[in-house]
């Protein structure tokens, strides 16, 4: 139960901090800065440094359907930026109408999280991109080699891969596909009014939003949903206080990370989702079982903290979460033209 | 056989004009201006005037997957602008993996054509958009009312429909969906180097491209592929000289417009596709049966004109067709953010 203990410690710490900051000097801003910290401009990686050439190619590959089994799936299929990087479905549908086992998390602000999916078998954005290509429930290609062959057959890609990976002799390959998509993904950071507030602009949040932020920290939500991405950095049991499925009506019950590790401690453990743009991310939870944000907040406070929220508090927290809706970088919002099949 | 006669008359006229213009005064530009004419800035419609509010809303609805049966289909699914408004598949795949009966034509430069599909049962862009919503092979919604209900349920759409249709009491409805998408579609005009040439810029085409243009007119291709969209304004039998399926290896043989009209004269009759951005439109023909452009040109000259093209002539025509690759309007290439499900 290591994760739960960590959760509890952070939680208690958070509440303690809350009492200190809000009741001691009423400095909501100071407390929030400590709990959340500064959003980076991009999610840099030493393993895969962001370059303009990789980002350009990666954005194209993000829309590339020709390397999927039925020719309809690209990253953008389940992660459309028009819907803030997720598809609005309970569970995404891949090539040949295969249904994914869990809800698609957004690709925005995702590249620096502890994992790219709910259970942690996709470590980083690059790993996730590469695995998607051969996942039978997504692109469903028979092999990475088959995808490489298609990319090599689209002549217009070669100079773009060469520019992005100048040291490579034979740059059109699946690892570079993953690196390019990863570099693009690492640019998808969405600064929001909450970041203006953290930077000192007191009027970036309404009074209700500030009250919601205070509740969010005081109640213990920020025990897990902390850091610049408001979560996404730890695994935690879903249902510390109550079995989650009693409230989400989930069917079937998902064992979460246990399915990967087979450790009893990992039963019902999932990645804590980051909450940036959460207002845009319906439906909620690992199985998309709940459509409404207010209902999701109510469930979370019940099953994690064993608390019943009063309506005004719930409304304030909803208002605070609105302040996490950010701006997707302009460059990402321009559709790339892909090289033609010839 | 009215269409075929028309084709022959235009064809002979075109060849005659060709002889006159090219051999008489060698004025390729004058002849091309007569045959093709000027590309409009947008494809205006009296029935559905283009307004900024309609275009803004229409672009959003173009990406709206939530009004499809399985939640994955929008206009953009089969008509992605990243691939010049078509999806690169032989036949598009709709909701629940149903396969369309013919190849998806591009949405670029399409709104002013004689029909929106190959056989003419989708008259204009608005009609096509509306019918797609309930076509079991595309969006597959059970009814227009079901789609309306979803649109009404996404609160953020109401003010946008109100702004686009200020005279309507209850503007969120499927006819206005179709008008908005239609207005957006009417902006999708792609001026290309060939238009610069038609405007008098002699060096907009290479020598090979000019030679290809001359062949295109002299051979009779421009008999059908004429006007500002290089086709798209008439129906014609596919296979005037030879059965098309002998060359395309089409399986099964498609009766074309006969399926709609049940007139014997309409057997194997299809809309003449417009050729703007044709280089980007692989695979070719109503069934996507041919992947390569050069092979398509060879087949067309054989089955329509009973001519075997020499290699250099074929290369020149290919080069000319390259000059039809145009620029999609910047506004269209910006991804719209859709209202959230709440």
Which homologous superfamily in CATH is the superfamily of the largest domain in chain A?
Cytochrome c-like domain
- Work out the radius of gyration of chain A: 21 Å
Largest interface: A-B, 36 and 36 residues
Structural class of chain A, please? Answer: mainly alpha
The chain-level mean pLDDT of chain A equals: 93
Low-confidence runs of chain A: 15-25
Q: In CATH terms, what is the fold-level topology of the largest domain in chain A?
A: Cytochrome Bc1 Complex, Chain D, domain 2
Strand % of chain A is under 5%
* Secondary-structure element string of chain A: HHHHHHHHHHHEHHEHH
CATH architecture of the largest domain in chain A: Orthogonal Bundle
Please report the number of helical segments of chain A: 15
Instruction: Tell the overall outline of chain A.
Output: globular
Explain what you see.
Two copies of one chain form a homodimer. With 342 residues, chain A is mostly helical. Chain A has 15 helices and two strands. The first copy, chain A, has a two-stranded antiparallel sheet with strand order 1-2. In chain A, helix 1 (2-25) packs antiparallel against helix 2. The radius of gyration of chain A is 21 Å and the shape is globular. The N and C termini of chain A lie far apart (56 Å). Chain A binds chain B through residues 60, 63, 65-66, 70-72, 77, 80-84, 87-89, 93, 96-97, 279-280, 282-283, 291-293, 328, 333-338, 340-342, and chain B through 60, 63, 65-66, 70-72, 77, 80-84, 87-89, 93, 96-97, 279-280, 282-283, 291-293, 328, 333-338, 340-342.
